[in-house]
Amino acid sequence: MQxxxxxxxxxxxxxxxxxxxxxxxxxxxVFDGMDAQALGLVVPGIIAEWGVDRxxxxxxxxxxxxxxxxxxxxxxxxGDRIGRLNSLFASALIFGVATVASSQVExxxxxxxxxxxxGLGFGSAGxxxxxLASEWIPERFRTYVIAxxxxxTPAGGTIAAGITPFLLxxxxxxxxxxxxxxxxxxxxFLTLLLVRESPxxxxxxxxxxxxxxTARRVLGADIELLPEAGTPADAARNGNGSGGNxxxxxxxxxxxxxxxxxxxxSASTAVVYGLTSWGAVLFTSRGFTQDQAIGVIFWxxxxxxxGALAGGHxxxxxxxxxxxxxxxLVTFATIVALGLMVEHLAAAPDSATLLAIYAVACVMxxxxxxxxxxxxxxMTLGYPVSCRSSGIGLGMxxxxxxxxAMAWSGxxxxxxxxxxxxPFFGVxxxxxxxxxxxxxxxxxxxxxxxx
Length: 451
Description:
Layout: E1 2-4, H1 5-10, H2 16-50, H3 54-82, H4 84-102, H5 108-136, H6 142-150, H7 152-194, H8 199-204, H9 208-219, E2 224-226, H10 232-238, H11 255-284, H12 290-318, H13 320-343, H14 351-382, H15 388-417, H16 422-434, H17 438-441
Parallel strand pairs: 1-2
């Protein structure tokens, strides 16, 4: 029987192997988030041990974000050439080893170099993991799987925030790096052992025998695979029957989508990384204990997972334009509220004030993550199939610009404010408002479902 692999997996039941692929990709992305978040959680301890200035430390915090931007672009390109599984394994190996090595450094410069190298792995894991898992899953479940995997990295950051206080007591910040990085390397090898490259990619690379052999082994059917075809939606949008094969990423028809996504994604990551990179330092400087400061990041991160999972349903019901505009305004309001609450703290927060700050951080984290998941949906459905992977990679690269800028400048903003946190929160509030520009710039919004 001749059939495409997408058709073959979509007409049969979901098998244990397919669930294993999703589980292992999710696990890699969770440890990606744990390793990426680790430094931001232990910054106060490192600053105290080394006696360095907060502003000076910004280079180490921003280095991994620079690496993540480069890694997203390079990793997507590499995955199309050497395979998504090989690239995913390499990603886990790179960021795991870099995290372990970070436990041995003594200077900000050396730490920044290792965080940049680790960032290459952080950035590469997402595009390859999403592509690999989606190709193994029936079409009717792909949107759910993508939504689940999209929260893997933020969920990892949340887990890290939840367990780091306990690990710090017993192992110190160096031990945290060893534990997180070592586990990441182990998960990478398990993924390489348990998962297989998708037959769709093998066939696209001309490896027909390997593609058919893998498909038959997993599906248990005697099939002969056909190449994957472009979707009808792509063909209609581009005026041809080839799935948009003639449209490149920098074609003028994509310009408004690229510009809108770039602004919105960059501004969104500035908000997220502003809190996760400098939150522990900011809150401890206002009288919070380190556990309380990490708690703000933990609860905000926990709700970011909920927000991302809710994105698929809300975008379908309301459309991406309304969701993006709403996320922008609500995030702006929560940043202003959080900034004013912290600004007017006269002493360490009492239980009621701490609870209120946690609540505001939860709303802020959930809504900001909802906006980011909507951006992913707009990129995935907005770019034609001919340049979809490179479009998503470029979007992720542009998205890191705001995060890099905020991670690098956060210490300067805190120093500039002195006893005031308003300059720091003011910049984040401006970024939140900038997200709404995508609602009018982008010309390929997802329309709300009819009926």
